[in-house]
């Protein structure tokens, strides 16, 4: 088994990196330049922003400290789904019914944009339809039924289907779940292939992409100067910050305080002879626990199984052992699997906000940012990249809607926020067991 959470490699050792095929090498930024807009971060958000800005006629330089898709964009579970990590009824309390409906519509636009970009640019990323939220406990089932009534009855969302236990067991070889909320419009994909495809599409629009080009300092002003670690400078009128959980704390501390990097982890089995019997319609699945399990099949019949959560920089001990145990609890037919049958184990950080909504906004009138997708970013990152590009080009409607969502810094400041959050989350972790 290959296990990696190292950050000193071109890519961490994951099934995604091993299955992506030939990886392009892009140049470092070694010479100073001036562009209309600079983008910091080469994940889904940054690549989408760069693509849409170039499409609107701006000159763009994208600066990535490692490689395209090196962070969460190239490591996540690959599920692109409706809505947000924030419960819609909590969102109503924050924003009111009308704005919650508008934000719901934006989440559907995010899913459609993902599909459109894949189709338009022929991105080979194993796009597969279907995703289900599954209930373990009666209270999960009540929540999912409320979601179903809101989305299907109130919002007239027609691709969503309620699956009772019998219907669910026809599709999923597990007795663990009570019911599910299934959405045919959501789905899953190979996130690293998708991100690399977005980068290629951006380059075809004229975007200059530089890898291994970390930014050490930002000098704000009407003309922004980015000081790179190697001494080169990039000057720009507008700046997009798209580093999310991997954006250096020193670059923009005022927005960094409103996200918490949380580690999440995935294992991949060897190809399984009975894989298609496990998930008969090949949907992606996530349960409703606070620290949730999420899983899906790959085209070569592996089972990808993710979960756990770490609020420190170090991964939990025995990640593969714990995830394998959780996998067997879901699929008892895999009881004979051992660690020798796990080919990959990897992890990475996602950025979480206090209210679990994306944090989108602007600083000093010419610095735009999107962060804190809270584990719900495969589709939303692409949309927020597009929305920031719209705002820079003068169309503020969708950007303003996102930016009106209120966000508070995590309590405790830089020194105490980690223990404060760990104490707060202990309550929700305990609820997962009762």
TrEMBL record:
Lineage: superkingdom: Bacteria
GO CC annotation terms, alphabetical: cytoplasm
Gene3D superfamilies for the chain: D-Amino Acid Oxidase, subunit A, domain 2 (3.30.9.10), FAD/NAD(P)-binding domain (3.50.50.60)
GO molecular function (one): oxidoreductase activity
UniProt entry tagged with the keyword Transmembrane: no
Keywords, comma-separated and alphabetical: Oxidoreductase
FAD dependent oxidoreductase domain sequence ranges: 36-390
Cross-referenced InterPro entries: FAD-dep_OxRdtase, FAD/NAD-bd_sf
Protein name: FAD-dependent oxidoreductase
Organism: Thioflexithrix psekupsensis
């Amino acid at each position: 088994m290959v296990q990696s959470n190292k950050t000193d490699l071109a890519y961490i050792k994951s099934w995604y990196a091993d299955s992506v095929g030939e990886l392009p090498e892009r140049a470092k930024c070694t010479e100073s330049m001036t562009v209309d807009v600079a983008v910091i971060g080469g994940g889904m958000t940054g690549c989408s922003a760069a693509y849409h800005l170039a499409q609107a006629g701006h000159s763009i330089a994208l600066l990535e400290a490692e490689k395209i898709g090196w962070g969460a964009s190239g490591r996540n579970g690959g599920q692109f789904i409706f809505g947000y990590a924030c419960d819609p009824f909590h969102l109503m309390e924050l924003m009111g019914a009308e704005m919650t409906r508008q934000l719901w519509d934006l989440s559907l636009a995010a899913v459609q944009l993902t599909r459109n970009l894949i189709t338009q640019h022929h991105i080979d990323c194993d796009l597969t339809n279907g995703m289900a939220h599954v209930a373990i406990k009666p209270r999960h089932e009540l929540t999912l039924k409320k979601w179903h009534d809101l989305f299907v009855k109130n919002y007239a969302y027609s691709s969503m289907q309620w699956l009772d236990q019998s219907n669910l067991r026809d599709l999923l070889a597990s007795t663990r779940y009570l019911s599910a909320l299934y959405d045919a419009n959501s789905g899953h994909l190979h996130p690293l292939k998708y991100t690399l495809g977005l980068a290629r599409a951006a380059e075809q629009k004229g975007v200059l992409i530089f890898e291994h080009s970390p930014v050490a300092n930002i000098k704000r002003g009407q003309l922004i100067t980015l000081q790179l670690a190697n001494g080169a400078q990039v000057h720009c009128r507008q700046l997009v910050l798209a580093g999310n959980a991997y954006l250096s704390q020193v670059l923009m501390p005022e927005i960094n305080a409103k996200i918490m990097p949380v580690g999440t982890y995935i294992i991949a089995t060897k190809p399984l002879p009975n894989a298609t019997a496990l998930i008969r319609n090949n949907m992606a699945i996530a349960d409703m626990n606070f620290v949730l399990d999420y899983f899906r099949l790959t085209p070569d019949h592996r089972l990808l199984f993710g979960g756990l959560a770490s609020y420190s920089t170090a991964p939990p001990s025995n990640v593969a052992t714990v995830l394998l145990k959780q996998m067997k609890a879901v699929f008892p037919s895999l009881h004979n699997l051992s660690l020798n049958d796990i080919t990959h184990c990897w992890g990475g950080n996602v950025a979480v906000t206090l209210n679990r909504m994306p944090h989108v906004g602007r600083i000093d009138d010419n610095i735009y940012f999107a962060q804190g997708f809270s584990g719900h970013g495969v589709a939303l990152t692409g949309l927020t990249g597009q929305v920031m590009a719209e705002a820079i080009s003068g169309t503020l409607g969708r950007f303003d809607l996102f930016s009106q969502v209120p966000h508070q810094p995590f309590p405790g400041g830089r020194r105490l926020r980690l223990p404060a959050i760990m104490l707060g989350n202990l309550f929700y972790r305990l609820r997962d067991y009762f």
